[in-house]
């Protein structure tokens, strides 16, 4: 992709979203999940289980944001973003098919995740050159 600014914008958007969600879910999981009708209570093991993927989101977001300034890592960061977002969105689609319709916030998250993931795939594909 000749438009490096477009890559930067996509990575910045993807990184900010991943970091925002990751930090909110990691630092304030009880309040964050309650906003979608999920009540974690004081189960320490459950809190540990929700904080772990939250930190994966946070670190992935940091990789995306770092690649905004480091062009040498943009292809890698776009691939990370595409895999991350499409995995989350795909998991929600699977759950929708197997379990039924979740809270509206989770449906909105699914649409956002699939949209951002596809945008990252498109941006990666438009690069033409994988380096």
Strand and helix layout:
Blueprint: H1 4-27, H2 29-34, H3 44-69, H4 74-99, H5 104-127
Could you write a compact summary of the structure shown?
With 131 residues, this protein is an all-alpha fold. The chain has 5 helices and no strands. The longest helix has 26 residues, at 44-69.
Notes on the structure:
- The protein has 131 residues and is mostly helical.
- It has one domain (4-127).
- It has helices spanning 4-27, 29-34, 44-69, 74-99, 104-127.
- Helix 1 runs antiparallel to helix 5, helix 3 (44-69) packs antiparallel against helix 4 and helix 4 (74-99) packs antiparallel against helix 5.
- The termini are close together.
């Amino acid at each position: 992709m000749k438009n490096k600014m477009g890559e930067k914008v996509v990575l910045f958007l993807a990184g900010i979203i991943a970091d925002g969600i990751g930090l909110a879910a990691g630092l304030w999981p009880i309040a964050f999940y309650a906003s979608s009708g999920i009540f974690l209570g004081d189960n320490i093991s459950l809190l540990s289980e929700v904080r772990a993927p939250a930190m994966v989101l946070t670190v992935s977001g940091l990789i995306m944001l770092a690649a905004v300034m480091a062009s040498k890592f943009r292809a890698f960061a776009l691939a990370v973003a595409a895999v991350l977002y499409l995995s989350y969105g795909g998991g929600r689609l699977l759950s929708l098919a197997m379990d039924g319709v979740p809270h509206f916030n989770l449906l909105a998250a699914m649409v956002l995740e699939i949209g951002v993931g596809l945008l990252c795939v498109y941006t990666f594909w438009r690069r033409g050159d994988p380096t």
